[in-house]
Design a protein that fits this description.
With about 240 residues, this protein is α+β, with helices and mostly antiparallel strands. The chain is built from four helices and twelve strands; from the N terminus they run H-E-E-E-E-E-E-H-H-E-E-E-E-E-E-H. A hairpin with a 6-residue loop joins strand 7 and strand 8.
């Protein structure tokens, strides 16, 4: 995987500053709406399931990222709707504290737009993710208009990503596409297959079970018909 964690700029670490205790609590307000909450959870759940064997990433939603050069909780923090950090330990965290994480910032950020937040997501946050976080892949999605835009960091500047024939945008960091399906932002594999969430995996398992039961019933009816014809099905190979 082409990724990797991006280190904190040298100027952000001041050896004269005594760091506060780690494991800071997140300071993010509730999601904008139920739709926004479901969208964030869908991205998180599907990626966690898809990468269930991996231990080298951290994914979260609506969680505070603290990045103060002076290592203060009270300044310089942002709370992306969804983000992924690569090359780190996969374990629960109350927040993402840059100075406690070897200077790592998110490799991928997704913001779910709303009327009250989109100007910040398109402006100030985009600038921060570009200039301070240096996050390679940044996306935003509007659940009402279904607008999806993405940017990749090139020579320190965000360049817009061009959609493929299906309208999906490639994340080089995740090695996955992001696209809209049934009004929701989803992940897709390089081959264009939907990365399933828990409900879809359950439906697949249920369908497989139903197919197996149907095959058993057909086999039982065939065996019964053979016996009616005087043929013992157990003797057939």
């Amino acid at each position: 995987m082409a990724s990797l964690a991006f280190s904190m700029p040298v100027e952000i670490v001041d050896p004269d500053v005594v760091a506060p205790p780690g494991d800071l609590d997140s300071n993010e307000p509730p999601m904008e709406s139920y739709v926004h909450l479901i969208q964030m959870l869908l991205l998180l759940e599907s990626l966690e399931l898809f990468w269930k064997e991996r231990t080298d990433f951290f994914a979260a939603g609506n969680l505070t990222i603290y990045f103060s050069p002076r290592q203060l909780k009270s300044e310089h923090f942002r709370g992306p709707d969804f983000f992924v950090v690569l090359g780190t330990e996969r374990r629960p965290r109350k927040s993402w504290v840059v100075w406690e994480e070897d200077g790592r910032y998110p490799n991928v950020i997704v913001e779910v737009l709303s009327d009250s937040t989109e100007s910040i997501d398109r402006g100030l946050k985009k600038q921060t993710y570009q200039d301070v976080f240096r996050t390679p892949d940044y996306f935003w999605f509007h659940p009402e208009t279904l607008e999806l835009s993405g940017f990749h960091l090139v020579d320190g500047q965000y360049e817009p990503l061009s959609p493929d024939a299906s309208g999906r945008l490639w994340s080089a960091q995740l090695e996955l596409f992001l696209g809209v399906a049934e009004g929701q932002l989803r992940f897709f594999t390089r081959e264009g297959e939907l990365v399933p969430a828990g409900k879809e995996l359950a439906q697949r398992a249920e369908s497989a079970e139903q197919r197996a039961e149907s095959a058993e019933r057909r086999a039982a009816r065939l065996a019964e018909k053979l016996r009616e014809l005087g043929v013992d099905p157990d003797t057939l190979k």
